[in-house]
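Each field is listed here:
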Amino acid sequence: MSILLFENFSQLLQTEIFSMRLIDAEDFFELMFRLLFNLAVVYLLVRFIYRNSRSGKNYTFAFLALSMVVFLICFMLENVKLELGFALGLFAVFGILRYRTETIPIKEMTYLFVVIGISVVNALANKKISYAEMFLANAFILGLLYYLEISPFFNKELRMSVKYERIELIVPEKYEEMVQDITERTGLPVTRVVVKSIDFLRDSAEVYVFYKNTDTEAK
C-alpha cells in the first residue's frame, strides 16, 4: 500500500500541465517557509514597532498587503535573473506611486521602503546566502527600528499640518497667543508653530504644529 502511494506521489510530481509542472516539492516548501517567515517579520514590524508608536491613523493593512505582493512577485520571478534591477525598480515604482489618494508622511514612507526592502531580501536571497545571514539581517532591521522608535534622541518632536482660521494671530507679535490657542484646542503639548502658507481670500492659514512625542516618553 505504501509503495503504491509513493508511486502515485512520484507520478504527481512529474505531472505537467501546458508544459508547467503541477508541483515542485522542493520549491513549494521553500516558498511556504519563506512566505511565512517574511509574514512573521513584517507583522512584528508593523504590529509591535510601527503601530504601537502611532496614536492616529496607521497603515498596517497597507504594509502587510504590499509586503506579501512584493514578496510573491520577487519570488516567482527570481529565475528571470533580474534580482538587482528588479528590486531597484520596485523601490522606484512604489516610491513614485505613494498612494496618490493622499500624501503619506515621511515616517510612513520610510516604513514603506523598509517593508519593501525586507520582502525583496527574503524573496531573492539565493544559495550564496545562508538562512542564518538572512535571519540576522531581518533581526538587525527590526532591532534598529525598535531602538529608533523608543530612543528620545530620535523622537523628541512630531509634526502635523493644520488649517488655522484665526488669521489675526499669525503675526509675529501674537505668536505666543497662537501657540497657546492651538495647544488648548488640540490638547497636544505644542512646542512651536511654523506658518506654511496664508490664504487671505478664505481668511485662513496652513501651519505646521510641532509637539512632543508623548508616546516615547510613556515608554
